[in-house]
Amino acid sequence: MSGVYPNSDKRVGLDQLVAHVKDGDWLAIGGGLSSREPIAALRALVRAGRKGLQVVGSAHGIDVDLLCGAGLVAKSAESYVGFEQDFGMAPNYRRACESGAVEVADGCCYTVVQQLRAAAFGLPFMPMRSVRGTSFEGLHPEYKKMICPYTGDELLLVPALQPDVAVIHAQYGDAHGNLRIEGPPVADLLFARASKKVIATVEKIVSNRELCDMGGANVPYFYVAAVSEVPFGAHPTACYPMYAYDRPHTAAYYAAASAGADAFKTQYLDPFVFAAESHADYLEAIGGSATRERLASWSEGTDAWMKLYEEVGA
Question: In whole angstroms, what is the distance from residue 188 CA to residue 260 CA?
């Protein structure tokens, strides 16, 4: 089960936020695919020089690929890392796994979900029916089989997995650490319940009253150890309703990652992570207010959204 964090004011800067993550930690990364991933926090982790991280989640993309390209990851318990139909496989992640730099503990979405549920419920394992008859069992000697005492059916047992830290990006939060995620929460609510602590970036910190008027928190304060206000903190992934996925920036990222480790460092990590020491520096590096206004234009209608998606250049 998660720790309890009752502090009344948990607002910190990005560097203080990611100081909660230690070398070798199990890290659950919120959001998914090209939506609401905590990229600003991950860039800060790269600058902080963390090593040996073990990442867990399902349906991820540029977030895990970035960490692999920067050499932070030692083990992946992800069920999918890629750029969907838009660009294809994740180049840094693939190189890291194929070279042996990252230990691969492949699972499927539901094994990860059940392992996190076990941790959230304070149980040592959870039963499941799926993945029986697949090669996943051979990859995971820790999975066990049992005969259900009620039905006589054979079930697969997966052990609890409790991440040390879950890093989440939400649209809104308050100083106390209550978070409100708008739209699909992906696995974030489960990450919050299963992890030892949550650290969060938010688009905007509001009062508790304002948060209640929006419909209340869906990640309560007592899971959250620290929160940082980072507008545009999910870029280049989307954070609806604030801004859309930045396809041109992602295309430039993908080209750099595909060109090899050295090219990725010089073409992406150096200008957008290491040289951009603050979030304000990063916003300037990606085009400043013009980029923010362009990505906010998705809400003008379907034609505006499609125009954004059709953009390819850097």
Answer: 32
Asked if residue 52 lies in contact with residue 23, where contact means CB atoms within 8 angstroms, the answer is: yes
Contact 56, 78 (CB under 8 A): yes
Residue 14 near residue 279, CB atoms below 8 Å: yes
Tokens 């692999």: give the residue: 68
CB 163 within 8 A of CB 26: yes
Phi and psi at residue 143, to the nearest 5°:
-70, 140
Strand partners, 55: 27, 76
- Listed by start position, the domains of the chain span 1-122+161-314, 125-159
Q: What is the dihedral of CA 108, 112, 117, 119, to 10 degrees?
A: 150
Enumerate the H helices of the chain as residue ranges: 14-18, 39-48, 62-69, 84-87, 91-99, 109-121, 136-139, 188-194, 208-214, 247-258, 261-264, 279-285, 288-296, 302-310
| This model's pTM is above 0.85 | yes
- pLDDT tens for each residue of 241-290: 999 999 999 999 999 999 999 999 999 999 999 999 999 999 999 999 99
Burial of residue 234 (CB within 10 Å: 0-12, 13-18, 19+) is: buried
- Provide the sign of the torsion angle of the four alpha carbons 69, 80, 57, 173, taken in this order: positive
| Partners of residue 70 on adjacent β-strands | none
Cα–Cα distance for residue pair 178/220, rounded to 1 Å:
5
Distance CA(17)–CA(10), nearest Å, equals 10
Question: Of 304, 301, 300, 295, whose CA–CA distance to 248 is shortest?
Answer: 295
Does the structural domain 1-122+161-314 have CATH classification 3.30.2280.10? Answer: no
Q: What is the pLDDT of residue 108?
A: 87
Spatial contact of 45 and 262, defined as CB atoms under 8 Å apart: no
Q: Look at residues 270, 295, 294, 273 and name the one whose alpha carbon lies nearest to residue 282.
A: 273
Give the C-alpha distances (Å, rounded to integers) separating 197 from 240, 276, 312.
Answer: 25, 27, 38
